[in-house]
Design a protein that fits this description.
heterodimer; A: 269 residues; mainly alpha; 2 domains; two-stranded antiparallel sheet; 68% helix; B: 289 residues; alpha/beta; Rossmann fold; six-stranded mixed β-sheet; four-stranded antiparallel β-sheet; 11 helices; 21% strand
Amino acid sequence: MLKDITIGQYFPGTSVVHRIDARFKIVITAVFIVMLFSASNYSALCVPLVFFAIAFMASKLSAKLMIKSMKPIVPVIIITSILNIFFIDGVSVIKIWKLNITDNGLYTSGFMIIRLIALICGSSLLTYTTSPITLTDALEQMLKPLAKIKFPAHELAMMMTIALRFIPTLIEETDKIMQAQKARGAELDSGSIPQRAKALVPILIPLFVSSFRRAEELALAMECRCYNGGEGRTKLKTLVSGGKDYAALSLSIFFLSVVFILDLGKVSF
Amino acid sequence: MIIKLEDLTYTYSQGTPFEKTAVDHVDLEIEEGTLVGIIGHTGSGKSTLIQHLNGLIKPTSGKVYIDGEDIHAKGVDLKKIRFKVGLVFQYPEYQIFEETVYKDISFGPRNMGLSEEDVDRRVRSAAAMVGLDDSLLDKSPFELSGGQKRRVAIAGVMAMEPKVLILDEPTAGLDPKGREVILSQIKEYHDKTGSTVLLVSHSMEDVARFAEKILVMNKGKVFCYDDPPGVFTRAEEINAVGLSVPQITKVFIELKKRGLDIRTDVYTVDFALKTIKEYLEEKGGAVNA
């Protein structure tokens, strides 16, 4: 069902990875992505993988969860690898009818697959180990300097927090409404495309109505608690950075430089 | 047996850290035409259990038989089962979507593929059953009050004329008068149509007054399934699992504790009155009640 979606879900824990300052985690994830995309050969690509493996072990999450997070991108991976295999020039390895499978094609598509998987796993690790609220808090603080040029950092963070907060609620609500309409004999998963589109009406209308109701209630509740924007607002949990955060960041930068060295050294298979 | 459950188990989010067994090896048989009250704590598995009865959720293990038919067997049309077992969810007014009350109530019957006259008859009789005036039928359901919306939603399921009607806390969030009205309408529906009705509720009082049989759920298991006197004689056990018995039953239990030789399976005020009269007569006292 809809509830099985794990992307963007947070799994509470007390591991080192969970405890690292969220701002650092965001930066480290960015460094990780730079590593992935600056690696130009397989040996350089191993570096971010090793880095991820260390972080993953330290997070004490189950491998099953990671694999589950891959599910939604399987079609993307298949399509990109097929395109890469067949449409890159090089020395032909296997020939099927008019389609050439080349050495370069295999090389590049393998590269792409690893990159994509590592990208998803890396960013999933960030969201699995950081609660959405902390994540937006961190973003808000990182964007704060931009407030000088009238960038609405607080408003943006608040909107993100609210949106993230309501994703599970809306999923649950959708599930409930779907069940209720199914109980009245609505057919959602069969019929022609126009029929299916029409079958969505009994779900979308109640969902819209309840979203507006929720928004109104939330606005009222926020006003009752004297919310008046970001100015002068203090945090219950302030983000504190310490030694382990700098250590983790240094480690990621170290790995990044290794990638650069391997890229320059042209050590390749 | 209209409903038969065999070793039914359901586990939420299997394989994640949030795994939870909501229904735990339940065996149950419900006779046709009974008004059953289902009671239990939040999270005792009531809502999950009833969603199994029309095939909205598939059990992790075990079997569900409706009218003798295994609903998850191959070749069974779940849609037909859903017309046979009507389910009214908690806060059903949030599922309303049509422009008019009439259209919303007719959504179910129309899905059944009935003729226009048949749909019309069913909509009108269901609306009358829940006490919705004819003049309301052409109004937008979004203009109605909360209590009226709820009745529209209940009528929407009643209009399918299911053999089994299940209502999940139909009185939640209503004022005492609204509760009373809805409960007596459900009772009336049961008496008139002779259909099986399952009523999920938090309130022992409500259940005690209307139900012919009571199913007490605790931690995903059936704690007991019996007629009201049978259930309330086990008042102490029920208290022990954190559910309360009706106020009036408490009075009688306390009386017994204080040394009166009186029965304790009393659960309605009328019956309490009769019991006290009998008791006093037995003692030879004058009765002027």
